[in-house]
Amino acid sequence: MTFKQLFEKSDDEFKIEYLFRLLENDPVIRNDFLSKMPPVQRAEQTALMDYGEFKEKTSRSYEVFLSLIGEIDLEALDWDSYVPPHGGYVEEWEAYDAMAEQEIEKALGGFEDDVLKSLLQGKLSEVMVDFAAFLKAAYDSDIDDPYDILDDPAYYLINIKLIEWVDFIKNKIPHSKIDDDEIINSVNLLFLFMEENKEVQDNIRVFEEFLVVLIEKISDKSRLQRLSGVFSVDKRYYPKFAITLVKYIDKDSWEKLARELLFEDQTIGEQLLEWYLQNGKKVNYIDVAKKLFAQNEHIWAEKIVDNILPEYDERFYVDVNIVCCARSGQVKYYKKVNALLSADEKKSFMDKIKNNYNLTAEVLKEDGEYDQIMRIIEKLPGTWNFQKKILNTVKDNYPDFTFHMLEKHISNLMKGEGRNRMTYKQIAEWFIYAKSISGQDHKMNSLISQLYNHKPNLPALKDEFRMAGIV
Q1: What is the pLDDT of residue 347?
Q2: For residue 367, what is the DSSP state?
Q3: What is the 3-state secondary structure (H, E, C) of 193-215?
Q4: Helix (H) or strand (E) holding 274
Q5: 8 Å CB contact between 125 and 58
Q6: Contact of 141 with 157, CB cutoff 8 Å
Q7: What are the pLDDT digits (tens) for 347-388?
Q8: CA distance 260 to 255
Q9: For labelling alongside 408, which of 169, 258, 398, 460 has CA 20 to 30 A away?
Q10: Residue that is last in its domain, among 216, 232, 261
Q11: Is residue 348, in this structure, part of any structural domain at all?
């Protein structure tokens, strides 16, 4: 039987599905297929949908999705079809989560393929229909979740499942053949829907990155002027998309909008600060940096610390470096502001970092407070806080004290109830470190010999000492 005969005998559904997968995975073949599509079909493909048609289709899809979501039963889970999420022991909560996910997938599993087919046909407006319809259906749904598996089913459907689908389609956009006019029209249709359905407006963020990828795909950016109508919906609901769009359609107002949306998305603050740096606007940079730091010092301190100087604003400079020091555990930030701190400020900072023994010791060393460092170290042998970093602060100035503390720490490790090969490996590593303590070779070799010849015999310890090269 020839290939042609085999092909003709094959099931049509199988052939269509195979062709679809081939076109989906190979953009070259897909674009060739679209270019050879009959003129009538191409005209149907590129005809722009108006909002009346969009609204009608969205309404129908909404009812379908609402019905499918209504079939999700989280009370009577089908445990006969349960597939464990992984091998080995599965916690009960994890099993319930996996089962709920399987129930949702069973009800909504075809959604992703349907949307992808529309995209591959260049029908982005149909993609927007399904996205908008599912969003509203999920928002209006009432899934019975008596065991609180999903906690908030509507939130789960929108912020986990819908985002998964949107991200999947977003990643296909760069390889898809979509007309610029279709992109612009589809985005406008989505925002008209959002304007009309105010209860779901704050969920536009679900589509933000998808929308950004779409407008970046448009070759002639001047066409983006036709998207100015999207701003009838509050920009705070889609800050990243708004700031990207304004960059193309009204560049002069970009800075103003970025300041307006400054606290809506972290990336906007980052972009605005970078813009001020590139344009040499130091005063503006400090102004915005102070606002962001005041809003969340933990996020912004390390992002701005390298771009500020005391002559710009000394108090701000000190505050930022102190936060960086406490968060990163790096004394270099303290060194930059040490001379600018009052006695009370130093005391307040030391109270703030008192549980970070390494950093506390390094800060005290900067101020020459070795007695305080040694009092801290004396409390640490035998604990996990006894570390090389803290010993380094006194090792050069007080080698006898350093070795004595190290000897005490090793003694505590040897007395520990949980002593094992790992303990011996740690002790061997400490002896390697002890070689860097000046004038302690005799005491170190004596202690090594004492442990190596320990009675009763410790074969594992001897093995670790030999592997470490200390005997």
Answers
A1: 95
A2: T
A3: HHHHCHHHHHHHHHHHHHHHHHH
A4: helix 266-278
A5: no
A6: yes
A7: 999 999 999 999 999 999 999 999 999 999 999 988 888 999
A8: 9
A9: 460
A10: 261
A11: no
| Cβ atoms of 202 and 245 closer than 8 Å | no
pLDDT < 50: residue spans in the chain: 39-44
Position 140: which residue type?
Answer: D
Q: Are 215 and 185 in contact (CB under 8 A)?
A: no
Candidates 451, 386, 454, 457; CA nearest to 468 is 451
Q: Supply the mean pLDDT for the chain.
A: 90
- Where b means 16+ CB within 10 Å and e means fewer, 121-147 reads bbbbbbbbbbbbbbbbbbeebebebee
Number of folded domains that form the chain:
2
Domain that holds residue 122: 37-84+92-261
Check if the beta carbon of residue 279 is closer than 8 Å to that of residue 272. Answer: no
In angstroms, the CA 463 to CA 271 distance is: 56
Give me the pLDDT at residue 417, please. Answer: 75
Cα angle, residue 149 at apex, residues 147 and 152 outer, rounded to 5°: 105
Residue 395 lies inside a defined structural domain of this protein: yes
In this prediction, residue 42 carries a pLDDT of 44
What is the C-alpha to C-alpha distance for residues 290 and 282, in angstroms, rounded to an integer? Answer: 12
Q: Does residue 40 contact residue 181 with C-beta atoms inside 8 Å?
A: no
CA dist., res. 236 & res. 323, Å (int): 29
The predicted structure's pLDDT at residue 143: 84
Return phi, psi of residue 423, to 5°.
-60, -45
Write down the pLDDT at residue 255. 97
pLDDT of residue 213: 97
CB atoms within 10 A of CB 211: 25
From 191, 226, 261, the end of a domain falls on 261
How many other C-beta atoms lie within 10 A of the C-beta of residue 375?
A: 11
**C-alpha span between 125 and 49 (Å, rounded):** 7
Segment 435-438 long-range contacts (CB within 8 Å, at least 24 positions apart) = 436/395, 437/395, 437/399, 437/402, 437/403, 437/406, 438/396, 438/399
* 310 assigned to some structural domain: no
Phi, psi of 368 (to 5 degrees): 70, 25
Inter-residue contact 212 to 243 (CB < 8 Å): no
CB atoms within 10 A of CB 168: 13
CA end-to-end distance (rounded Å), the chain: 79
Q: Is residue 17 part of a domain?
A: no
Give the number of residues written for the chain: 471
